[in-house]
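Supplementary notes for students who missed Thursday's class. We covered one full example, reproduced here. Read the sequence, then the structure, then the short commentary at the end.
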Amino acid sequence: MVNIFTDSEFRGTVKKVCGQTSIIIAFAILNILLVLTSTEAIAQDAVIESDPIEVDQKFIQSSLNAYANARSRQMESLNFSTVISSERLGRFADYSVEDALAHVVGVQAGRRGEINLRGVGYNRYNVTVDGVRMGSTGKGDRGFDLGSISLDMVQEVEVLKVLTPDMDADALSGVVNLITRRQDINERGFSAILGGGGNTRYLDLLGPDNRASLSYWDNPTEVLSLSMNLSYQVDRRGWESLGVGYDVINGQDGMPVDVIDNISPAIQTNGQNRIGGNLRLNYQPNDQTTYHVQTMINHTDRELIRHRNTLNTQGDWITPDNTGNQGTYDYDMQLQNFNIQQHIVQAGAKHEFARINLDYNIGWEFGSIKEEMDNPHFQWSGLEYAINWENRTKPIMEVTNPPLQRDGTVNPRRVGLEHHDRILERHVDNTYSGRVDVEIPFTLGAFKIGSSARFTSKDGFYNDSRYTIFGPLSVGTYDRARYDGIDIFDQEEYRIPIFIDPYSARAFYTGNRPRMQRDDDMHFENSEIGNYSAIENILAGYGMTTLKLGNLSLYGGIRLEHTGANYEGRRPLFDDQGRLVESPDSNVNASYINLFPNAQLVFSLGSQTDIRAAYSRSIARPDYNRLAPFEQIHVQDTTIIRGNPSLDPMVSDNVDLLFEHYYNDSGAFTLGMFYKQLSGFTSERERITNIQEGEFAELDVLFSEGVTEIPVQERIYQNNDEKADIYGLEVSWQQSLTFLPGFLSNFGTYANYTWSQSVLDVDYRDDDVRLPGQSPHVLNAAIDYNQGRFSTQLSYHRTSSFIQNLRHTRSMAPSIDQNDNIYMDRYQDGWSDLSFTFRFRVSNHYQLWADVSNILGEKQIQYAHTRNLYPVESEMQGGRAFLLGVRYDL
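Structure (token representation):
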């Protein structure tokens, strides 16, 4: 029997919740003790330090130095870059690198943190750590999970938007570089952070959040320096959602009419345990030679749990004010566990000789993601109901014979475990890399040449199964169960009255596996083509020159990359009964060469003002799971599904302009414009095509005498002739307002705005559309206040709505157009967030801090074409997230 909480288990759960709450109380007590301890430290500091004002000035200067270091990196970079300093990062209520990137100009972030740099698309950027490229953690793609990296491991975040010839070119929109090492280690330092908190709405469901980190840097000897970080985080978040299924049927007069099919309230939780560390050693035996070794290890366990009720009309289509009696009540719980690992090891050296500078390194980068998913699905039938959908975003279904009462009890009827879905998935990326760079300085600049090699293996395993159990199954007697249920969006009609314990459900599957039967046909059809392996060897060489002619600096060069690859997939064949006949491996070699020209100039209007212009080219290689040479032939369904190892990379030609002015107080104003032309799009195409007898031997059984050609349904990935033009404007302003009178001089600003547009020419549509994932307006605004030992900041973020995905075929939408079919593209609502941070240094060594985020808690709606007519799903992250703690600096 599936474990629904019994009375004793519920009491145990309450004890667990109380125990979790006690952890937060313990943190609060710890903070109080630290404050008391700090008070003594203040007194001791007062004896040692003659002037407290000098102590405050020391910390103010430390903050200014952090700003200045970031500004220097940004000014001196050959790239168009944005650098966020450690001091600025510490002012936001962020957990992960993904959270922090939402505040960077040019970055568009989805509600769940998905990063889209300059609107080009998700996962179209590279991620490096101190310049060392990270291994991919994508599930068949080339993506990076930046939500798995704690912000406490990072000193600065640098976003490079224009590549130079000495950089890997497969970063279509740019590079996110995480800087973990101290830039100027000239003394011993130590910093520790400890904190805890949670979400006010979901605390009893999720438990508390925790945060702890250690940083240490030192010069043990005159020739040796080191920097290290350790971090541990528990980050838990919750979302409520309401899905609505609309459809279209022909009414009594033959005209199309909207109907509603289902309503599905749900709650999903996301818990992440992040633990990681990094270490860098620098050995400098003389002024001309430096050796370094660095390593990073990051491990994240992520747990996604969803509880969802679905009220189905079961084909008894509902129009306004109608009732039905054939509905079903479905309850499903989904448990997903992800294990994400990222490792980096690199060693290298720099030598300055009389006429040349030599730089070389070798490294190993590893990334992996493993998923285990369980999804049991229960169903009650015979519902009697009525639906009111005057409010199409939040329709109400009234059930007159509910299977579950508000107190959690169930009506006396048998319950069916419809099925138990289970997915096991694993993707592993191993990369070995090396590079050599030679720089030859001369009077007006320098000439630089170099070469690099990257050898990558990527393996994917996918197993998708559905199980049913022999004989009827009774869920048993429902007690009040977990947390007495939840009203989604605070509405009783959307109540989820019971929760199946997810790990008990997994244990039920394990214990009853002998009684369950797997749907083998479905398993092989869903799983076989998801298995792949790839080996990519990328060899590159480049040459570039820098020239400085008075106030004008010129940079230019060219890069050549050769890609040699071997891709493996499977070729499953299903017979006319839908049964797997065979699944042999398929192996294909591929190779291609790309050339990347690059030209940039910088004109200085003064020591603090520059104008930059650049032309560059970059690419995005196709995802591994599309390059795999799989081919699935299904005789019963007359379908062919194929991968394509001959896919070419997507190419972006880029033009950038930038005006930047830096203030004396480390502030800056920048105004930039960019234009990108994308070509070589890869898309999934479904089409009906005619095949000849003998073209696919497996389908010859479908040919009858005298028939030489039959239609089949084909799905394939291919490059197309589509092009997209992307253009935009980026404005940022950061400044301490010290020129204002009185207390106003303590205020400072951090603000940026990104406007972008795109025109995508789709060959199967007459209208031009915007690229999916591109939000035309992104705004970040923050005001901070600093006075002595006290600082605080109020931050606001706004991302406007965007197209989530494009529809390839037209469909009826009578509320929009009664006569013609239209493209019902899917849109995602915009979202806003308001956060508040507080910092107070109680002594020379101790600082109290507090963060509050998700203050607005807005609802967000996904919709098809028109928001108020065809909403698909409403979502809300409720409650207020808070975190408070103490920081110790030596």
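Commentary. The CA atoms of residues 325 and 556 lie 72 Å apart. The first helix runs from residue 7 to 48. If anything here is unclear, bring it to office hours.
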